[in-house]
From TrEMBL:
Subcellular location: Membrane
Transmembrane segments: 72-94, 134-155, 162-187
Protein name per its UniProtKB record: Ion transport domain-containing protein
Source taxon at top rank: Eukaryota
Gene3D superfamilies: 1.10.287.70
InterPro entries listed in its UniProt record: Ion_trans_dom, TPC1_plant
Domain Ion transport: 14-193
Length: 213
């Protein structure tokens, strides 16, 4: 019955319920609004296509590598959340300090930056003139995208080599500590998930063998 369907394998069955009946409801709306014959792009048609595409997620349960990756991502969600909050805190602190130390120093007519790789690459949005731009700049620094070009520009704009401490400390805290901790947790979780899936498969095989006898 419906209660057994809803509570047995709840993730898969509830996904099927929402997807199938949601798609049916949206298709009825499309027929009522005559979305197809109008010729104009419709948000309802896009929603129908999106719901049909999400059906491919059902394949994850039947393909072992995909199932392992899906379980892996679900198990890592709390870890990503904690590390994300830690990164957000570090970003916020460095964003505030960046505004205090370097706010207003990066602009296209700054003579100190004339002819530099920073100016030639049009990296002007990489600044701490406001909080949002500071967050973008810190992300670029985290992924080490021309890190030395940005750092060199700020050293010249600030007029002191002590400015390098800001960027080196950010690199050490984020790239060498936080992200390495995240990678270690990912590796540890992947081994744990693999062992649990192998144990679950063995139990299912034993249960199937016991049922057949």
């Amino acid at each position: 019955g419906l209660e057994r369907f809803w509570h047995t394998n709840p993730v898969r069955h509830r996904f099927d319920f929402v997807n199938v009946y949601g798609c049916f409801a949206v298709e009825m709306v499309c027929l009522y609004k005559d979305c197809v014959s109008s010729g104009a792009p419709s948000e309802w048609l896009r929603l129908v296509l999106l719901l049909h595409i999400t059906r491919i997620l059902r394949v994850v349960h039947y393909i072992h590598p995909l199932k392992q990756i899906a379980n892996f991502v679900v198990r890592l969600a709390p870890t990503y959340y904690r590390m994300g909050m830690l990164l957000l805190l570090v970003y916020y602190v460095y964003g505030q300090f960046g505004q205090q130390f370097f706010g207003g120093l990066i602009y296209s007519r700054n003579p100190a930056l004339e002819g530099t790789d920073f100016a030639q690459s049009n990296y002007w949005p990489m600044n701490f003139n406001d909080f949002n731009s500071g967050m973008v700049t810190l992300f670029v620094l985290m992924v080490v995208n021309n890190w030395f070009v940005i750092t060199g520009a700020y050293i010249k704009a600030a007029g002191t080599r002590w400015a390098v401490l800001f960027f080196v400390s950010f690199f050490l805290i984020v790239n060498m500590i936080v992200l390495n901790i995240l990678m270690a947790l990912i590796i540890d979780c992947s081994a744990t998930v693999r062992e649990e899936m192998e144990r679950q498969e063995e139990e299912e095989e034993e249960g199937a063998a016991g049922g057949s006898t």
